[in-house]
Known about the structure:
With 100 residues, the chain is of the alpha+beta class. Helix content is 34%, strand content 9%. The protein has 3 helices and 2 strands, in the order βαβαα. The protein has a two-stranded parallel ribbon.
Amino acid sequence: xxxxxxWFDRIRYAFLIGEASDLFASQLAGKLPFERCGDLQSALAAxxxxxxxxxxxxxxxxxxxxxxxxxxxxxxEHRGDAFRVMARALPGAERVGRAA
Length: 100
C-alpha cells in the first residue's frame, strides 16, 4: 500500500476483499475510509450503494487490485470479466462504461 499513499487524497472510499484485506485495513487505518467486504460481489454492491448516495457529483467505481487474488479468482482476466458482468447487472448499468 505504501506506493499508493501519494494518491490517497484522490480516493473517497476503499472496499477491501480477499485474504489481504486485514493487512490492507491496518495500512489504511486513519488514512482513508474503508470497508472490509470479503468478496468482489459484496464490495461492488457496497460501492454501488455508496456511489448512489453521492449527491454532489457522479461517482466512479474503479476495480483497482492492489495484489493478486488467487484466493478468489483463477486469473486477473477472470477477476476483471467477473467485475464487468457484476457491474452491468447493477441497477443503472446503462451508465456503466464500455472498454475501448
